[in-house]
Each structure stands twice: as C-alpha cells, then as structure tokens.
C-alpha cells in the first residue's frame, strides 16, 4: 500500500497511517476510518458516553489523525497506540469539562506485540526521567507545577489554595518548566 520500503515491517493500520502521513492518501485514510471507528465507538460507549457524544468524539479523533498525521512517528508507536492515545485524551477532556471522574484505561482488544513491550519500557524510562527532573526542581517550583499539571488547577485556584500572588505562581511555573525542558532535552 505504501512506497515506504520499511513500511512492511509495521501492522496494516500503521501502514495506512504512514500512507496518510506521506501522501495524504485518502484511500488509506478510509481504511483507517473503517478499522478504528467501530473500535473507538465501542471504547467510548463502554466508558459511559452517550452514543451521540461517542460518535462526535470518534469523528474528532479521526479528523485529528488526518490533520496531525505528519506528527506520527512509526518508530515510536504503532498507529493503534497513537490513535487510542488521541481518543483517550479527548475522553479525558470531555470528562474534565463535565467534572466526572476519569475511568481506568479500557482494554481496546488489540493484540499486544513485542513492540508494545518496548514502547512500555521506553515510557517507563521516560517517566522515571521525568520524576527525577521534577525532584530536582526547587520545592516551590515543583509544588506549583504539580498543582497546575497533575492537580489540574488553574492559576487562580492555585492562588486561592496557596495565597501566593498570581505573578509569583506564573513565574515559578515558567522557571520550573524551563528547567524541566533543559533536564529532559535528551528525551526528545
């Protein structure tokens, strides 16, 4: 399906996504859509979404896959991993807007491959590096970054909880993120 000589080592959905990425191949996108739409819909319905919202999310996820296909790197993840991650992020966004608790990740029914194991190991290593980089921050910077990004609080909510001025909160976040970027530059 693709002219990429290395593409045959990837799963069929990954080959389709490579074709979309490299040539904006509409036929390959049609195959991706036909393959993932029912699986994503089932995943959304199992999480408790209504059929209408699930259909909207699936449309949005697959549109994102089309528009951001240039960002797909088959060396880092299979198409299924990449697309399910987009779907999971959309699901979390919707649940946050509704202030409902986020359900545990659902089994997608996809077979796990050796490459998935390598990806999981790489993710664990990256997570360990992130934890180490967070630990290297000053306690003040780490506290506001954790509240903002892990606690999902706005700057105003952080101000209300800590009593710190907004400018101080923004400065600590900015400086902490700069330090994290510096510490984690080799991950990119």
From TrEMBL:
UniProt domain RNA polymerase sigma-70 region: residue ranges: 32-100, 133-182
Keywords: DNA-binding, Sigma factor, Transcription, Transcription regulation
Superkingdom to which the source organism belongs: Bacteria
Entry annotated with the keyword Transmembrane: no
Gene3D superfamilies linked: 1.10.1740.10, Winged helix-like DNA-binding domain superfamily/Winged helix DNA-binding domain
InterPro entries the record matches: RNA_pol_sigma-70-like, RNA_pol_sigma-70_dom, RNA_pol_sigma70_ECF_CS, RNA_pol_sigma70_r2, RNA_pol_sigma70_r4, RNA_pol_sigma_r2, RNA_pol_sigma_r3/r4-like, WH-like_DNA-bd_sf
A single MF term (Gene Ontology): sigma factor activity
One GO term of the biological process aspect: DNA-templated transcription initiation
Similarity annotation: Belongs to the sigma-70 factor family. ECF subfamily.
Name of the protein described by the UniProt record: RNA polymerase sigma factor
Source organism: Rhodalgimonas zhirmunskyi
